[in-house]
Write a structure and sequence with these properties.
Layout: E1 11-15, H1 20-31, E2 35-40, H2 46-52, E3 59-63, H3 69-83, E4 88-91, H4 107-135, E5 138-143, H5 156-176, E6 181-188, H6 194-203, H7 207-217, H8 226-237, E7 248-251
Parallel strand pairs: 1-2, 1-4, 2-3, 4-5, 5-6, 6-7
Helix pairs in contact: 1-2, 1-8, 3-4, 4-5, 6-7
Length: about 260
């Protein structure tokens, strides 16, 4: 099937690009014609990202710490140096943290989750948006979660961080809209990935049983695929979604509907 929403001529900056959702999104956007700037922390598997891209795809890889402002400023400057502009920013870097009741949650671990999932999103917006404002166009897709819409026992840090991403999205969308830039959020439910495997292992001594229990709570009775999240991100970033701003879009098999 032909691509429905071509991104030919655009530049897509993806933070957390080496993760399951990030790499799937990079591959899809590249197939639709976007140049890709893949950002992730030191030691990330950029070879895995590269292997998923089509032949001839334009790719720049950058190592960065999303918690550090100088590092974020560097990856934004490097993206501009490589391709001259930033049309799409998938603000996707995130960690799940520990699975523990609040009384047992170490403060340092809680702060780690907030630093990556909230400060990282904030810094990305702070440094990417001026580039888009200068162009008079662009789209930011922040990655929240259904944990930004509902609570989950044992995931207080992750849940707090993803609620914060939704709040940031709504506020910044109101700021950015008059300047020609859209800001939206995607909210994945349970997705087949390393992160969900980690959460399952933290929730139960039998991760397979945890997987089955979560699947049973989803109206579609299954976990999602990373490609299904990538499809939503690519749509929201495209001109086909040109009137979508400030929206919070779930991709969760109906889990938040019940």
């Amino acid at each position: 099937m032909a691509d429905r929403m071509p991104l030919e001529g655009t530049v897509a900056l993806i933070a957390g690009a080496a993760g399951a959702i990030g790499s799937a999104t990079a591959a899809l956007m590249a197939r639709r014609g976007a140049a890709i700037v893949a950002v992730d922390r030191a030691g990330s598997d950029f070879a895995g990202v590269r292997s998923q891209l089509p032949a001839g795809a334009r790719l720049e890889t950058i190592t960065a710490d999303v918690r550090d402002e100088a590092s974020v400023a560097h990856y934004v400057a490097a993206a501009r140096a490589a391709f001259g502009r930033i049309d799409i920013f998938f603000n996707n870097a995130g960690i799940e943290g520990l699975v523990k009741p609040i009384e047992d949650y170490p403060l340092e671990s809680f702060r780690d989750v907030i630093d990556v999932n909230v400060i990282g999103v904030f810094l990305g917006l702070k440094h990417v948006l001026p580039v888009m404002y200068g162009q008079g166009s662009g789209c930011v897709v922040n990655c929240s979660s259904i944990a930004g819409l509902k609570g989950t026992p044992g995931l207080s840090a992750y849940t707090a961080s993803k609620h914060a991403v939704i709040g940031i999205t709504r506020s910044v969308a109101a700021e950015a809209g008059p300047r020609g830039v859209r800001v939206v959020s995607v909210n994945p439910g349970p997705i087949e990935s390393r992160m969900m495997d980690s959460i399952n292992a933290g929730q139960s001594p039998d991760p397979k049983a945890a997987h089955a229990a979560v699947s049973a709570m989803v109206p579609q009775q299954r976990y999602g695929r990373v490609e299904e999240v990538a499809e939503l991100v690519a749509f929201l970033a495209s001109d086909a979604a040109g009137y979508c701003n400030g929206g919070i879009y779930s991709v969760d098999g109906g889990m938040c509907a019940v």
